[in-house]
C-alpha cells in the first residue's frame, strides 16, 4: 500500500526545490537588464542593436532549449524507477542534441546582417546587431549545455548551486561588460562587441562551474555522466529528440505570441508601446515565480510517475496549483493597488509623455491581474504534463490557443472593436485562458486515479 504524503510535506518539498529555481530565473533576467542599462548609457543605436540581437538569440535559444528541458522529466522518471543507467543516457544525449543544435544555428548569426536587412531593419542597427550576434552566437552551445546541466541538477534536486552560479554570472557579466563597452580600466572601447564578449564569457564560465559541480557532486558520481561522453546513444537520443522538440516548439509559440503583440502595439503608438514594455517587464518578473514552481513540479511529478505513485502525483499536483494560485492572488493585489507607483519607477516623470505612459501602463497592469493568473495556469500545467512526458499534444494546444485564438482575438479587439492596446492585452488573456484550461484538462484526465493509500505525516 502506497504511503500518501501530507499536503504540508508536498508543499515543503515543492518550495525547497522551487524557490532556488525562482531565484535563478530572476537572476537570469537580471543579466539582460544589466546589458540593457549599460548599453542605454552608451548610445541609442547600440542599445537598439543589442535589444534586437538579443531578441534574435533568445528566439533561437527557446527552440533549442527544448532538448535541454527534456532532460528534467526524463531524469526524474528514471530516478523514480531506480534506473541509474537511464539517468546518464538521457542527460548525456540531451547535451549532445544541445551541442548539435548550437553548431547548426550559428550560420544564422554569422549572416544575421543580411537577414535583418531583408526584414526591414535600418542598416546601422542591422550592422551593429550582426557584430553582436557573430560573437554572442558562439555562446549558443555553452548556453544550451548550461540549460541541460541545470535540468539534470534540478532533477537530482540540487537547485541551490543553479541559483548561486546564476547570481555570480550577473556580477561577472557587469564587471566584464562595462569596461569593454566604455573602454574603462585599461580595456579597449568596443561597444556592442564588448557586450557580446561579456555574454560569451559568462556562458563559458557558467558551463565550466556546472560541469565541475556535476562531476564533483558525490551524489551524482555514480551516474558517470562524463565517462566516455563521446560515445553516441542513438536510442536515447531519439527519445530526447521526440520529447524535446515539442517543448521547444511550445516555447516558440508562446514567445511568438508576445512578440506579435509587441509588434501590433507598435502600430498603435509609441506611448502605448512604451507602456506595454514596462507592463511586460513587471509581469515577467512575477512570472518567474510560476516558472520556478513549474520546473519543480516537473521534477516532483516525474519522480512519482517513474515510481507509478499516482496518489502522491495527484496530491502534489493539487498543492502546486494551490501555491501558484496563492502567489497569483498576491500579485493581483500588488498590480491593482500599486499600479501607478510601479510604472513610475521605469520612466522620467518630468518628460512630456510621462502622464500618458503612467495612465496607460496603470490600465495594463490592471489587465495583468487576469493575464498573470492565466499565464501561471498554463505554465504550471505544462510543468505537470512534462513530468509525465506528455509534450506533443500540449504543443498543438499551445499553437492553437495562441495563434488561432489569442493573436486573432487581440487583433480584432484592438483594430476592429477599437479597444486599442487594451484589446491586444485582452487577446493575451483569451489565448492564455484557453491554453491553461485545455492543458489542465489534459493532465487531470490522463493521470490515473490514486490507488488506496495510507496518509503519513509531514
UniProtKB/TrEMBL annotation:
Alphabetic keyword roster: Antiport, Cell membrane, Ion transport, Membrane, Transmembrane, Transmembrane helix, Transport
Membrane topology: Multi-pass membrane protein
Gene Ontology process terms (BP): monoatomic ion transport
One Pfam family cited in the UniProt record for this chain: MatE
Cellular component GO terms, alphabetical: plasma membrane
Subcellular location: Cell inner membrane
TM helices/strands, residue ranges: 48-72, 93-112, 132-149, 161-182, 194-219, 239-268, 274-296, 317-338, 358-381, 393-413, 419-441
Keyword Membrane: yes
Keyword Transmembrane helix in annotation: yes
GO molecular function: antiporter activity; xenobiotic transmembrane transporter activity
Protein name per Swiss-Prot or TrEMBL: Multidrug-efflux transporter
Amino acid at each position: 500500500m502506497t504511503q500518501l504524503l501530507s499536503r504540508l510535506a508536498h508543499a515543503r518539498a515543492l518550495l525547497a526545490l522551487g524557490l532556488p529555481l525562482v531565484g535563478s530565473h530572476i537572476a537570469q533576467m537580471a543579466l539582460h537588464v544589466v546589458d540593457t542599462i549599460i548599453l542605454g548609457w552608451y548610445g541609442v543605436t547600440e542599445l537598439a542593436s543589442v535589444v534586437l540581437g538579443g531578441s534574435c538569440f533568445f528566439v533561437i535559444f527557446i527552440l533549442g532549449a527544448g532538448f535541454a528541458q527534456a532532460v528534467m522529466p526524463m531524469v526524474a522518471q528514471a530516478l523514480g524507477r531506480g534506473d541509474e543507467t537511464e539517468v546518464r543516457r538521457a542527460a548525456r544525449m540531451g547535451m549532445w542534441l544541445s551541442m548539435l543544435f548550437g553548431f547548426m544555428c550559428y550560420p544564422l548569426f554569422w549572416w544575421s546582417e543580411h537577414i535583418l536587412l531583408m526584414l526591414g531593419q535600418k542598416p546601422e542597427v542591422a550592422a551593429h546587431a550582426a557584430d553582436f550576434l557573430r560573437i554572442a552566437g558562439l555562446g549558443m552551445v555553452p548556453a544550451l549545455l548550461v540549460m541541460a546541466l541545470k535540468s539534470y541538477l534540478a532533477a537530482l534536486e540540487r537547485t541551490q548551486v543553479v541559483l548561486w552560479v546564476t547570481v555570480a554570472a550577473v556580477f561577472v557579466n557587469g564587471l566584464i561588460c562595462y569596461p569593454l563597452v566604455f573602454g574603462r580600466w585599461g580595456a579597449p572601447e568596443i561597444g556592442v562587441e564588448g557586450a557580446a564578449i561579456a555574454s560569451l564569457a559568462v556562458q563559458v564560465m557558467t558551463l565550466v562551474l556546472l560541469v565541475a559541480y556535476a562531476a564533483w557532486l558525490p551524489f551524482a558520481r555514480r551516474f558517470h555522466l562524463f565517462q566516455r561522453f563521446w560515445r553516441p546513444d542513438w536510442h536515447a537520443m531519439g527519445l530526447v529528440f521526440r520529447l524535446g522538440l515539442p517543448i521547444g516548439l511550445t516555447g516558440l509559440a508562446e514567445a511568438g505570441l508576445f512578440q506579435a503583440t509587441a509588434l501590433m502595439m507598435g502600430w498603435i503608438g509609441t506611448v502605448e508601446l512604451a507602456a506595454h514594455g514596462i507592463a511586460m517587464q513587471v509581469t515577467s518578473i512575477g512570472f518567474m515565480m510560476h516558472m520556478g514552481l513549474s520546473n519543480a513540479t516537473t521534477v516532483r511529478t516525474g519522480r512519482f510517475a517513474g515510481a507509478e505513485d499516482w496518489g502522491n502525483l495527484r496530491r502534489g499536483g493539487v498543492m502546486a496549483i494551490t501555491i501558484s494560485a496563492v502567489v497569483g492572488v498576491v500579485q493581483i493585489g500588488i498590480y491593482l493597488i500599486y499600479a501607478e507607483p510601479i510604472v513610475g519607477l521605469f520612466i522620467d516623470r518630468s518628460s512630456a509623455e510621462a502622464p500618458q505612459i503612467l495612465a496607460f501602463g496603470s490600465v495594463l497592469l490592471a489587465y495583468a491581474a487576469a493575464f498573470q493568473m492565466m499565464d501561471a495556469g498554463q505554465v504550471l500545467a505544462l510543468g505537470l504534463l512534462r513530468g509525465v512526458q506528455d509534450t506533443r499534444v500540449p504543443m498543438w494546444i499551445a499553437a492553437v490557443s495562441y495563434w488561432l485564438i489569442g493573436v486573432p482575438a487581440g487583433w480584432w479587439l484592438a483594430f476592429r472593436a477599437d479597444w486599442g492596446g487594451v484589446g491586444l492585452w485582452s487577446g493575451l488573456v483569451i489565448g492564455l485562458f484557453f491554453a491553461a484550461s485545455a492543458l489542465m484538462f489534459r493532465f487531470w484526465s490522463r493521470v490515473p486515479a490514486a490507488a488506496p493509500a495510507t496518509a503519513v505525516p509531514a
